[in-house]
Write a structure and sequence with these properties.
Strand order of the largest sheet: 4-3-5
Shape: elongated
Structural class: alpha+beta
Helix content: 25-40%
Order of helices and strands: EHEHEEEEEHHH
Distance between the termini: 49 Å
Number of strands: 7
Length: about 190
């Protein structure tokens, strides 16, 4: 099974590639990104060297799977490597969520480091707060404009602000985080 090096963008010096890029640009308006790995392999050539009955996966320098396809021409492995695997060795549930890695020639569920888990928890926290803030945006706008809000709106506003305070103060040192349940008038 074929495995490439990490493909990096490069400017071709070969006349035929420069001419091809110009022709494609003139005919389609599309720019061509040329990729070469550390072994000198060119992506536009390498993609035709994979087997026709395998799954081709694109993974970054940490082995995290970014994309995959049966047809390598559908892939764009910028700053990534490509490997082919037998379809029978592809785990059920493989997706491009970046929760899978290619390690030692196998696709495996990703095990996150403590730092990665902390960063994921921070991103989740930010997303939860953003959703809560969106729920009260109109109420806040009314208050900023000096308008009165209803008792129900005041209740929703206070419940949402209390919920945001709870999310901001919540311990994220263990992952996965069991976030506090959003009050019914906030959710």
């Amino acid at each position: 099974m074929k495995i490439t090096g990490i493909f990096k963008p490069y400017e071709p010096v070969e006349d035929n590639l420069i001419k091809d890029a110009k022709t494609i640009k003139d005919n389609t308006g599309m720019d061509i990104v040329f990729l070469r790995d550390s072994n000198g392999e060119l992506w536009h050539e390498a993609q035709y060297l994979f087997g026709s009955k395998t799954l081709k996966i694109v993974f970054d320098e940490n082995g995290v799977i970014i994309m995959f396809a049966e047809d390598a021409t559908f892939l764009n492995p910028v700053n990534c490597a490509v490997a082919e695997v037998s379809k029978k060795n592809v785990p059920a549930g493989l997706d491009v969520s970046q929760q899978w890695v290619f390690v030692d020639g196998k696709i495996r569920a990703r095990i996150y480091s403590d730092e990665e888990n902390r960063l994921k928890a921070e991103a989740e926290r930010k997303e939860i707060i953003e959703r809560a803030m969106n729920k009260i945006a109109v109420i806040q706008l009314k208050l900023q404009a000096g308008r009165k809000i209803t008792d129900i709106e005041a209740t929703v506003l206070n419940a949402t602000l209390d919920y945001i305070d709870a999310i901001e103060a919540f311990d994220i040192s263990t992952y996965p985080v069991k976030w506090p349940e959003a009050p019914s008038d906030v959710a």
